[in-house]
Amino acid sequence: MSPLDRLIIEFDTALRSVVGGANSGRPTPGSAVTPNQSLDAAERKHAAGLMRVNHVGEVCAQALYQSQKLVARSPQIQEMLNHSAQEEMDHLAWCETRLQELGSHTSYLNPLWYAGSFAIGLAAGLAGDKWSLGFVVETEKQVENHLESHLEKLPSEDHRSRAIIEQMRIDEIEHGQAALHAGGVVLPEPIQKVMQAMSQVMTTTAYKI
Fold this sequence. Notes:
By secondary structure, the chain is an all-alpha fold. It has helices spanning 3-19, 41-71, 75-101, 110-126, 129-153, 159-181, 189-208.
C-alpha cells in the first residue's frame, strides 16, 4: 500500500474508535444468550458502566497500537502490533454492541481518551522497541486485572457481558505474552505506578461519563 493508503486506513481506524462503528472480524461472544434476560434496571445500568469502561480501554488500545506502529523500528514488531490491534478492534465492536443492547452509550470523552493514549504510545515507541513492547506488556497486565475484577462485579445473570469479557481477557493475555517474547522489558516500578494511577482515573470517570 502507498503511504496515502495507509494514512486513510489509520484515519478510518481512529474515527471508528472515537465515534463508533467498529467492525469485528469474529462473532460476538455470547451471541446465543438472550440479551438482558433477568436483568433489572439497576443491573443493566451497572453492567453498562462496566462495559463502557471496557470500551474506553479498547479506544485507548487502538490509539496506543496505532502510535507505536508508526515509530516501531522492526517490521516484525509492526506486524505483531498490527495483529494485536486487529483483535482489539474486535473487542471495541463487541463492547459497543453490548452497550447498545443495554440501552446505554459509549464515553462522551472518547476523543480525549484517544488523544492522550496516542501521545503516550508515541512517547513509548520513540523510546525504542524494547521499551515500547514493555509498555504493551504492562498495559495488558493491568487490563487483564481490570477484566478479572469486572467478572466479579457484573450481575450474576449477565452472561452476555461475561462471555465478551472472558474472551477479551484471553486475548489480552496473549497480546502481553507476544510483546514479552518479542523483547519487551519490565518497566521501572515508578512508571508502573503512574500507569496504574492514570488507569484508575480513566476507569472511575468512564463508568459514569
